[in-house]
Design goal:
- This protein is 40% helix and 20% strand.
- The protein is built from 15 helices and 22 strands.
- The strands form six sheets. It has a seven-stranded mixed β-sheet with strand order 14-15-16-13-12-18-19, sandwiched between helices. A six-stranded mixed β-sheet has the order 9-8-7-10-11-21, sandwiched between helices. A three-stranded antiparallel β-sheet has the order 5-6-22.
- The mean pLDDT is 97.
- Bound molecules: nicotinamide-adenine-dinucleotide.
- Nicotinamide-adenine-dinucleotide binds next to α7 and α8.
Length: 464
Amino acid sequence: MNRDRLYIGGRWVAPSSDETIAVENPATEEILGHVPAGTAGDVDRAVAAARAAFDGWAATSMAERGAVLGKLHEALSARAADIARTVGLELGTPIKIAKAVQAGLPLAVLRGYADLAAQPVREETIGNSLVVREPVGVVGAITPWNYPLHQVVAKVAAALAAGCTVVLKPSELTPLTAYLLFDAADEAGLPEGVLNLVPGTGPVVGAAIAGHPDVDMVSFTGSTATGRAISHAAADRIARVALELGGKSANVILEDADVTKAVKVGVGNAFLNSGQTCTAWTRMLVHRSHYDTAVELAGSVAQAFVTGDPFDEATRLGPLVSAAQRERVRGFIERADARLVAGAAPVPEKGYFVAPTVFADVDPDSELAQEEIFGPVLSIIPFDDDDHAVRIANNSRYGLAGGVWGSPERALAVARRMRTGAVDVNGGAFNPLAPFGGYKQSGIGRELGVHGLEEFQQTKAIQQ
Ligand code: NAD
């Protein structure tokens, strides 16, 4: 699965250095292939191509751009099986979930932006002002490995629809999936320079994008620590930054909840993608009257998770993405000062697997309850009443997502009090057209749907 080119100015071009990055299969520990390790010089070339393409692309109508996104969607849809397989290989997502989420979600998001662009353009009149929206300019997009195509498409589709041009650096752990998007872009005939790919490491290619004087906006998804570094780099030239960062979301199970459903769905949510999901409900908050039942059920649901080969249709829990990530997660488990309810299930010896793990009686201020673990580790915490639940839920430096279970009115009232960018009431389904993003240290800005589009637009008032 070797790839040896960058995509710049509408064609596959040779990188400026011979250095490469090895891509590993985390389920087998084998090397799948290599991609170029881009350089700051490669970023210069890509940004120059994006800059050269900007005026022409920005001058097209939203509907024309929508039509191009429609063609891209068609070309990418034809690769759906390849996308699921590639994510299964380089990330280890179980194939069933890889098909439904890792391939299905970005295709839905891309289709959504093609359709949104076909809608009449929104312009407002305020008194004697005509308020218009224009593209921000050249966007640098930097993405992580846990949803390697969705996180790319969420930025690229919105930015292109808005009329921006883009330089993408995907995660060095999962770059092969991103290449499939560029195969599709090449086939769909995107105008040259509107979408460019420079794979490489964060400190080299990522930092060069974040600090580039000709990048007007940096759109980043990843850890809060890297988000901070990117903000510092962009601040020097007052470049716009959009950040989608970490989370430590609470799943609140109220006194009048359907406890069985809330616990089953809650455990599934916490362990989706081996717990490597920024919105994962990693803290389960349970009303004291249901606490013992919930703890017992969560333990048995976790034990029943089938861990193993991502390409076995029965597998629900694949490996973690890397040896480093497994060691990090094991560290949290070893240091935990709480009651272990599940965690001893056997896992394959080869590959970076961690058994589904559940802790009860977790102190809301402890490391387990405060740090984003990014592995299959669930913490259960009791509460006494709704106010207490809200206090614990909001006792986090993050504010990305959450869940509430209970009678609809009461659950909605609690959802409104949670300081997070999203809350699902009684298992409300993920909506790819709804705004997605964080409060507090979970980020700045919103992705997806019309709110995601507006992140990539400037607002101009024309007085007449
Ligand atoms: P990371 O921050 O290490 O890496 C993300 C990207 O940033 C990668 O492409 C990496 O190469 C690049 N990068 C690293 N150092 C850089 C630097 N100094 N300058 C510029 N770029 C740099 O994060 P990760 O380990 O890939 O992903 C896991 C994290 O991402 C978790 O904390 C998770 O919660 C978060 N995440 C958030 C969301 C969200 O939407 N809020 C979605 C997915 C993941």
